[in-house]
Amino acid sequence: MSLPDRPFFMSKPKRGALLAVLAGTLIAVAGCTVQPLYSGGDGTSSISGTVAPGMREKLASIAIDPADTRYAQDVRNKLIFLFSGGAGEPATPAYRLSLGVSSATSAAVRVNVGDDTDRTGRPSAGTVRMTSRYVLSDAAGRPLARGTRVVSASFDRPRQEFANLRAERDAQDRAAQELAEQVMLAVAQDLSKQR
Predict the structure, then answer these.
(1) How far from 179 is each of 114, 133, 148, 149, 183, CA to CA, in Å?
(2) Which of 40, 42, 110, 124 could disulfide-link 46, Cβ–Cβ 3.0 to 4.6 Å?
């Protein structure tokens, strides 16, 4: 059996196609310029979870419009803390963030709870779905970026009314925290694209 007849050797056209695909992949990988939002400034990843120094300054220069509901105020307060690291809103903001936060609660599971006399089909679990539409503008009011983020938080619905309301509010608080974190990441990505 001669060498080209062996099954583990490829024909010239197949070998050429494989080399072309390999070369194309190497060129594509070499052209990637991905830079993490969370970095130590020298290209290494930061374990502490802080953003790069230049990004921290941009985020700290964002003012957030006032909120009109309890859960929207919760998202706003968490964003102010995340943007500034606890220092509050800037005196002279370079950017302005407008938030539109809405919340809806739905019954996730309906079952008969209790003895045979309770056949109301009360919901025994619920879901809070919180949505934020944001617009990031510069100091002159020109929109730079906009987006929408949605989060959900589930909760149990006990038979006591107060416990039920408290569980729903706790789910709103969890959803507001997660929504603020998602909006902060989205805004950081939007700012990283600005020159």
Answers:
(1) 35, 11, 10, 7, 6
(2) 40
| Residue 142 included in any domain | yes
Is the pTM here over 0.70, yes or no?
no
What's 66's domain CATH number? 3.30.160.150
More confident residue, 35 or 91: 91
* Residue 90 falls inside a structural domain: yes
Q: pLDDT per residue over 142-175, tens digit each?
A: 899 999 999 999 988 877 888 888 999 999 999 9
Tell me which amino acid residue 158 is.
Answer: P
Per DSSP, the three-state class of 109 is strand
| Edge-to-edge strand list for the sheet holding 123-138 | 62-64, 95-110, 123-138, 143-156
Task: Read off the pLDDT band of 7 (50, 70, 90).
Answer: low
Are 113 and 125 in contact by the 8 Å Cβ rule? The answer is no
Q: For residues 125 and 41, what is the distance between their CA atoms, to the nearest angstrom?
A: 45
The pLDDT value given to residue 35: 55
In a domain, 42, yes or no: no
The gap from C-alpha 4 to its chain's centroid, in whole angstroms, comes to 55
